[in-house]
Amino acid sequence: MLLYDQQNAPNPRRVRIFLAEKGITYDRKQLNIVQGENLSTEFLSINPRGRLPALVLDDGTVLDESVAICRYIEELYPDPPLMGTDTLSRAHIEARQRHIEFDGLLPASEVYRNAYPRFQTRGVGGNVGVISAIPDLVTRGKTLMSNFFMRLEEELNQSPYIAGEEFSIADITALCTLDFATTSARIPFPITYPALQHWYRTVSARPSAKA
Ligand SMILES: N[C@@H](CCC(=O)N[C@@H](CS)C(=O)NCC(=O)O)C(=O)O
What we know:
By secondary structure, the protein is α+β, with helices and mostly antiparallel strands. The protein has 2 domains: 2-76, 3-Layer(aba) Sandwich (Glutaredoxin); 87-210, Glutathione S-transferase Yfyf (Class Pi), Chain A, domain 2. The chain contains 7 helices and 4 strands. Strands 2-1-3-4 form a 4-stranded mixed sheet, with helices on one face. Strand 3 (54-56) and strand 4 (62-64) form a beta hairpin. It starts with a strand and ends in a 7-residue tail after the last helix. 37% of the residues are buried. Glutathione binds next to helix 1.
């Protein structure tokens, strides 16, 4: 398998961590999003949406969308389970995963895209043409992120992991969101939240976090 990747982008990292947790090896090709390598004719012939990650299977089939790729891997390699083990846990983990995407990853991406000068005419990612950045989305995104951190703290006071007692894909998405928010989007790390800090230290210490 070949993963089209960018080392510091959050969505490809989600897939790398997932694959590392499963112990799966694969080839990687790095594309530089800032320099627009994801919009080259060559890459658009692989993923017309111009987004990363994209996973090319050995028979040439291309899968995109991080969670779809993870679902494919989970079904082929169920151990260790990262997306639930029964009907209810699968539904719960999926809901938590969506909460993290919509309430955290999306606003963090809006802060990054709309503040970073190199994206002034690429306010929306992927193969969508020229779209201006909107500076107001930076302010809105920061407010949403502060709500997101506060809610995570409350939730992590109730359970050790994002979706309950076990590490899951929801933790992977949350870890990638937090690192992306605090490094690329330059949103300060929420140091006043002890449960969130404890969770962050625990999941960051997993070997997969370095993938
Ligand atoms: N929902 C998609 C999002 C993919 C996505 O937007 N990836 C970003 C990198 S994290 C990207 O490719 N951006 C391209 C760009 O900014 O032009 C997924 O989960 O795979």
